[in-house]
Structures are given as C-alpha cells and as structure tokens.
Design goal:
Elements: E1 2-3, H1 5-16, E2 27-32, E3 55-57, E4 59-62, E5 65-68, E6 72-73, E7 82-90, E8 98-110, E9 117-118, E10 124-126
Antiparallel strand pairs: 1-8, 2-3, 2-7, 4-5, 5-10, 6-9, 7-8
C-alpha cells in the first residue's frame, strides 16, 4: 500500500518537526472502481442503492508491517458495486482523509447479491 499525500505530510511532520499531528482513532476500508491515487481522486463505490458502506478495520503491528487483525466483510450488494480495482484506508466512515491505498492483486466485479470480503491478515501495510 502507498500512503496518501496527506499522511506522508503527517509522518514527516511527526518525525522531523515539533508540529502537532492529530492521530486517527478509527480506520475504515473503502472500495474503489478506479485508482484513488495519493490525492484520493479515484471513484469510490456508490452508496446510492447498493448497501455499500466503508467498513471498520483494526490493525496489528509487528516490525514494519501492519495487517488487519480480523476479517473485513462488506454488506451484501443490493445493486452492482461495479468492478472493484483498489482499496483505501480512511480516518472516517464518510468523507475524511485517505491514509493509504493499493490496487487489488485481482480486480473483482461485485454484482447484486455478492459480498466482498478481506480475510484476516490479507490487508498489509508495510514501511521500508
């Protein structure tokens, strides 16, 4: 995963200045049908008539790796989500700031009746 512009700035301020940085207190996974890029400009799945909502996620950190500690399951689609190509981690359930994002290893078309799941341990964020 890559960090967004906003959170790259937060990290640099935290490490190299005395500037106060507000730390998120909750994290939410979002699904995208296009690359959100560092500025969160991609297309998030529509909430209109689809049952889509961002899902909360908790992380376990070991060394330079943060991974989701539990499975993440989105609601059953009541209409097509489209083809999900990317995921993002936000600091709010709606709006908010994109923290990190990544392309999926394989895109997934989500049709009516489908459920998108990320098993525990499959969402990895690494700092090198």
């Amino acid at each position: 995963m890559s960090f967004s512009n906003t959170f790259e700035t937060h990290v640099l301020n935290y490490v190299f200045t005395a500037t106060s940085v507000t730390r998120p207190t909750a994290w939410y996974v979002a699904l995208f049908t296009s690359d959100p890029a560092e500025d969160a400009s991609g297309t998030e799945v529509s909430t209109s008539g689809t049952a889509y909502v961002r899902k909360t996620v908790s992380f376990t950190v070991s060394g330079n790796l943060a991974t989701n500690s539990g499975a993440i399951e989105f609601p059953t689609a009541t209409a097509s989500f489209g083809t999900v190509t990317h995921i993002g981690v936000f600091d709010a359930s709606t709006s908010g700031n994109l923290i990190a994002y990544s392309a999926l290893s394989a895109s997934k078309a989500i049709a009516t009746g489908d459920v998108f799941r990320i098993p525990a341990g499959d969402l990895d964020i690494t700092l090198d």
